[in-house]
Amino acid sequence: MSAKSTAAAVSVASEAPARSEKPRVRDRIRDSAANLFYRHGIRGVCVDAIVEDAGTNKMSFYRSFPSKDDLVAEYLKDQERGYWQWWDEAVAPHAGDARRQVEALMQAVVDLIKTKSKSDCGCRSSRGCALGNAAVEIPEGNDRLNAIVHDYKAEIRRRLRRYAREMGAREPDSLGDALMLLLEGGYYTRLTFPNNSGPVTSIAKAARALIDAHMG
Fold first, then answer.
1. Could you read off the pLDDT of 207-216 as tens digits, one per residue?
2. DSSP readout, 50-111?
3. Region 16-65: CATH code
4. End-to-end CA distance of the chain
5. From CA 57, how far away is CA 54, in angstroms rounded?
6. How many CB atoms lie within 10 A of CB 77?
């Protein structure tokens, strides 16, 4: 859940009767799962661990979510919504200028890694992309969950290719794909270099160089 969504939820709760101030069981389960899935992986977290962290029981869990996969699907979609909110806010000041939008997006990544807590895009600075992490864990035959991740990554690719076309790149699809490789790879260098000291700190400069090489 994004910071803005959380703030809105708190605002609504403050106006509700006292008996409703405690978060709903379903919300507690979802929030606990999001934290545990991100820290320990989807496979590494069982239903018992989730209900214990949420302060509830399995009966309440299965009343809220028919299966663990249903909870995982909601977790992934929550992360996706938060990411697009972060993306849209990063590029909004430069509407109509595709190059500036890409540069702003890459700079937003640099700004993001400087934070230690969970950001508005749903990512913690030490663990990379939640949906990218999930892609490694989801079994090949789980079409439902794999489709969520695939569609999300396909949309990133589509947006970056569109920016490349709008800025007049010679080979816009190639530039869009190169920018995606830069963006995706940058997240994961955060896992192997302490204190955000790795190559991701140069992502904005690298993006400008890529764009320059495809222009003209």
1. 999 999 999 7
2. HHHHHT--HHHHHHH-SSHHHHHHHHHHHHHHHHHHHHHHHHGGGTT-HHHHHHHHHHHHHH
3. 1.10.10.60
4. 42
5. 8
6. 13
Q: Which two tokens stand for residue 190?
A: 């955060």
- Rg of the chain over Cα atoms, rounded to whole angstroms, equals 19
CA distance 190 to 119: 15
Distance CA 120, CA 75 (A): 15
33 Cβ contact list (under 8 Å, min separation 6): 45, 50, 54, 71, 72, 75
pLDDT digits (tens, 9 = 90+) for 73-115: 999 999 999 999 999 999 999 999 999 999 999 999 888 776 6
* Residue ranges matching CATH 1.10.357.10 in the chain: 68-216
Note the pTM of the prediction, 2 decimals. Answer: 0.81
68-216: CATH, from 3.40.50.300, 1.10.357.10, 3.40.140.10, 3.40.50.1000: 1.10.357.10
